[in-house]
Write a structure and sequence with these properties.
This protein has 883 residues and is α+β, with helices and mostly antiparallel strands. It has five domains: 4-140, Beta Barrel (OB fold (Dihydrolipoamide Acetyltransferase, E2P)); 148-209 and 218-307, OB fold (Dihydrolipoamide Acetyltransferase, E2P) (Beta Barrel), CATH 2.40.50; 320-361 and 371-453, OB fold (Dihydrolipoamide Acetyltransferase, E2P) (Beta Barrel); 464-618, OB fold (Dihydrolipoamide Acetyltransferase, E2P) (Beta Barrel); 667-756, Roll (SH3 type barrels), CATH 2.30.30. The strands form eleven sheets. It has a five-stranded mixed barrel. Strands 10-11-12-17-16 form a five-stranded mixed barrel. A five-stranded mixed β-barrel has the order 20-21-22-25-24. Pfam families: SNase, TUDOR. It is found in: Cytoplasm. Keywords: Cytoplasm, Phosphoprotein, Repeat.
């Protein structure tokens, strides 16, 4: 029989090999060496010298091309073929193995083949065996094999810790798939461990396998067989070096597998497109992961294997510059480009502390504040890495890498434990270009117990909303008004002149209103219409103030708990900036009270001269006419243009005076009689036990309700000003009298009865009013005295009010007279307040006030007398002389 040619795929034992066709590796046959037997490798325990016998043949044959001839077959069982092998150098097997003592002749060797050639071969082998015995070679050596082999690792983690960083010699016993091997770790010449090893950093497609749960066969994934063959032809039964890196969640060893000549096989598998990089091992591989990524990229670019249909992501627009305008969370920011266009981006591969995770959620605010301090208002560079498609509850999002002063912001967050790294799917195209470095940084932060990886939760910052009620605001006002330039953070821009600010050192949350100006109102909803330049002013305030560190000076509070004062952005009065941009006008009265009038009027003139925004149609000639009129008026003790003063006398009663000196008045007449009748019916209605139903739901701000006044326990019509759901209390304003108080929900009832409705039956009878020709003191003590005096002078008195002017918001400017005592136009309640030294004639007069020359003269005489006699606010002299 002629010799056949094949390649040795593997050696099963010292006497059996697996051969495959040189041109078609899938065509295999098993050949046992004729006339001989070798000790067996067994899972339950190897026979003596089984490994040495197999290893002698493995080193000699694996991967080599050999010639072979089948001498005989045994048809029973596996129908095994028996024959002889010859290497290209003419070395014959089993001759060499017998001569080296690694094979024994079978007891029945002479009965297998009785040909002359077989008889000659057998005699030759017997002679070689006799010589090996005499020389105590191989199996014939004194003593038995001392190799201890195990296939069980009781503690894989401990095993890795003991051998991490070492170069372990090993033999690949079996290739399960392109990334999974059974290897024999040769720890010492006498101690071996057989176990599964996962190749680090890659995942190869699976081969055909049987599902153990249902016994069904699962086909191979695309390129699974090719990956398996790629590794098998290069590593099966080869000596390799194993670098243990870690343990998988299933307790399998993760390692680099290195060919003794060509090194780590993983990059070669990736370049052939027969595996993908896996992120799970990044923290184990460290910088080596970069080599694997490059190999994978090479396969993608050349469209190899798994990447045959790969479409390269379109190159982005490159690096762009923008200003950070708002921080939504630790992974989401708003950027504004040089054209003023704002866009939202998410940091690539980075996630804020999870709100749903009880250990991470307390760090959400801390992480957001970390990012705010670092970036708000700063110029950054960014590159869009990809887009994440819209999902339920989320719009499409752009994922970007943002850098500030050369530092990757996502990396800074992760390094400080302020964010975690997203575990991407294989097909995600929006991952960060430094994804592996992010994973390593996360691992370092976890090991260092930084940020949200710390066992301790951050100290939670609980802000108290002092603008929740007027009572709370007054308490805090006393503290804040004594401090200057209080550090704060603008949390929200409600309008161009109204903000929500946080004062960290006081744990205070305030509604803050700019003093001295009036900004046009912006639309509050899509159906609403803003005043001219209202939206522009709001946008400008957003741009300059949103989430910025600022300083505030608190001067006063308004009737709803808002704090009035000056807000400084970058040490500049923001009210002045608004006015300078033509996006607000000066409110003379409050500007005088704030002490910033000169600065604000100068800014307003600058905006007029530049024809900015509100002043785009400004006509200087009209201003000149006004100035000439003002000069003439000032010679008569007046200032500015004048307008005719209305003569609109009404009988009124003052029902309430707030702490700022503003009035609530009722008209006496048909409205009074109607209110008396309504209140009588209203009381009777609520005395009826059948009408005791409480509110069905917590009240809403602005809702009309029936409220039981604390002082007399009577029921009145009211409107909800503020609502505290936690305390189950509401601040209500009694709409027919103007006073307010905070009461529990139990003292509220629905006001749904049409016979009592303020919309359809009888409108609210308490009207907002202010005294004309007066400027009340800014000092809290003198202001309190003025309010007390007014309350005393108006209590239980029917007065006559001349309505001098009605503002757009419905506020009445009035001069109050007592018909029993006022004999002339100079004898008014307004004049009495000035006479007592509890108010002054304003320096900046309204048009109607400038038109009342005689009244002004009389009031100025009374003010002069009060100064001379050191009454009230003048007790220490004229404080306005230096102005």
């Amino acid at each position: 029989m002629s010799l056949l040619e094949a390649k040795v795929k593997s050696v099963l034992s010292g006497d059996t090999v697996v051969l495959h066709n040189i041109n078609n590796p899938k065509q295999e046959r098993t050949l046992s060496l004729a006339f001989v037997t070798a000790p067996r490798l067994r899972r339950e325990g190897d026979e003596p010298f089984a490994f040495e016998s197999r290893d002698f043949l493995r080193r000699l044959l694996v991967g080599k091309v050999v010639h072979f001839r089948v001498l005989y077959k045994i048809p029973t069982g596996a129908n095994r073929e028996y024959g002889i092998l010859a290497l290209p150098n003419k070395t014959q097997l089993p001759d060499l193995s017998v001569a080296e003592g690694w094979l024994k002749l079978r007891d029945d060797a002479g009965r297998k083949d009785d040909s002359d050639e077989a008889t000659s071969t057998l005699e030759k082998l017997q002679a070689l065996e006799a010589r090996a015995k005499a020389d105590s070679k191989g199996l014939w050596a004194d003593g038995s094999s001392k190799i201890h082999s195990t296939s069980e690792l009781s503690d894989p983690k401990k095993f890795v810790e003991e051998h991490k960083g070492k170069q372990l010699d090993a033999i690949v016993e079996k290739v399960l798939s392109g990334d999974r091997l059974i290897v024999r770790l040769v720890l010492t010449p006498t101690e071996h461990v057989q176990t599964m090893v996962l190749m680090a950093g890659i995942r190869a497609p699976s081969t055909k396998r049987t599902n153990p749960s249902d016994g069904k066969e699962q086909p191979a994934e695309p390129f699974g067989d090719e990956a398996h063959q790629f590794v098998e032809t290069r590593l099966l039964q080869r000596n390799v070096v194993i670098n243990l890196l870690g343990v998988s969640p299933n307790g399998q060893l993760v390692a680099n597998v290195k060919h003794p000549v060509n090194g780590n096989i993983a990059p070669f598998l990736l370049k052939a497109g027969l595996a993908r990089c896996t992120d799970h091992h990044t923290t184990l591989l460290g910088q080596e992961m970069g080599t694997l990524r490059q190999a994978e990229k090479s396969a993608k670019d050349s469209k190899q294997g798994l990447f045959q249909g790969h479409v390269a992501a379109k190159a982005g627009a490159g690096e762009s510059e923008a200003v950070v305008s708002r921080i939504q969370s630790a992974d989401t920011l708003f950027l504004r480009n040089k054209n003023g266009v704002e866009k939202r981006i998410n940091l690539s591969s980075v996630r804020q502390p999870k709100p749903s995770d009880p250990k991470q959620s307390p760090w959400g605010a801390e992480a957001k504040e970390y990012l705010r301090k670092k970036l708000i208002g700063k110029h950054v560079k960014f590159v869009v890495d990809g887009k994440r498609a819209a999902t339920e509850g989320y719009d499409e999002r752009e994922m970007a890498t943002v850098t500030f002063q050369g530092k990757n912001i996502g990396m800074a967050l992760v390094e400080n434990g302020m964010a975690s790294v997203i575990r991407h799917r294989q097909d995600d195209t929006d991952r960060s270009p430094i994804y592996d470095e992010l994973l390593l940084a996360e691992q370092a932060a976890q090991e260092g117990q930084k940020g949200m990886w710390s066992p301790k939760a951050p100290s939670a910052k609980q802000y108290v909303d002092y603008s929740e009620s007027l009572e709370k605001a007054k308490r805090q006002l006393a503290l804040l008004s004594r401090q200057k330039r209080v550090p704060a953070i603008v949390d929200f821009v409600k309008s161009a002149s109204r903000f929500t600010v946080l004062v960290p050192r006081e744990n205070a949350k305030l509604t803050f209103v700019l003093s001295g100006i009036r900004a046009p109102r912006s639309a509050r909803n899509p159906q609403d219409k803003s005043e001219p330049f209202g939206q522009e002013a709001h946008d400008f305030a957003n741009k300059r103030c949103q989430q910025r560190d600022v300083e505030i000076d608190v001067e006063d509070c308004d009737k709803v708990g808002g704090f009035i004062g000056t807000l400084y952005v970058n040490r500049e009065n923001f009210a002045k900036v608004l006015v300078e941009e033509g996006l607000a006008t000066v409110h003379a009265y409050s500007a005088e009270k704030s002490g910033n009038s000169n600065e604000l009027f100068a800014a307003e003139q600058k905006a007029k001269d530049a024809r900015k925004a509100l002043w785009q149609d400004y006509d200087p000639s009209q201003e000149e006419e006004e100035e000439s009129t003002t000069a003439a008026a000032e010679s008569n003790g007046q200032n500015g243009d004048s307008a005719p003063r209305r003569k609109d006398y009404r009988d009124v009663v003052v029902t309430h005076i707030d702490d700022a000196g503003k009035l609530k008045i009722q008209h006496i007449g048909t409205g009074t009689a109607a209110l008396t009748d309504l209140m009588s019916a209203f009381r009777s209605f609520h005395l009826n036990p059948s009408n005791k139903q409480p509110l069905a739901n917590p009240p809403k701000t602005g809702e009309y309700v029936a409220a039981q006044f604390t002082t007399d326990n009577e029921w009145y019509r009211a409107r909800v000003r503020r609502n505290d759901r936690d305390a189950k209390k509401a601040e209500v304003v009694y709409i027919d009298y103007g006073n307010s108080e905070t009461i529990p929900y139990s003292r509220l009832r629905p006001l749904s009865q049409p016979q009592f409705s303020p919309q359809s039956k009888l409108k609210a009878q308490a009207l907002d009013a202010q005294l004309s020709f007066l400027q009340l003191p800014t000092n809290p003590e003198y202001l309190a005295d003025a309010v007390g005096f007014l309350a005393q002078e108006t209590a239980d008195r029917q007065l006559v009010a001349n309505v001098d002017q009605v503002d757009k918001d419905g506020t009445l400017w009035v001069t109050l007279f007592d018909p029993k005592e006022s004999k002339t136009g100079d004898e008014s309640v307004n004049a009495e307040v000035i006479s007592e030294g509890l108010a002054m004639v304003p320096r900046k007069l309204k048009a109607f006030e400038r038109g009342a020359g005689e009244v002004l003269k009389g009031l100025e005489r009374k003010m002069k007398e009060a100064k001379e006699e050191r009454r009230g606010m003048w007790e220490y002299g004229d404080l306005t002389e230096d102005d």
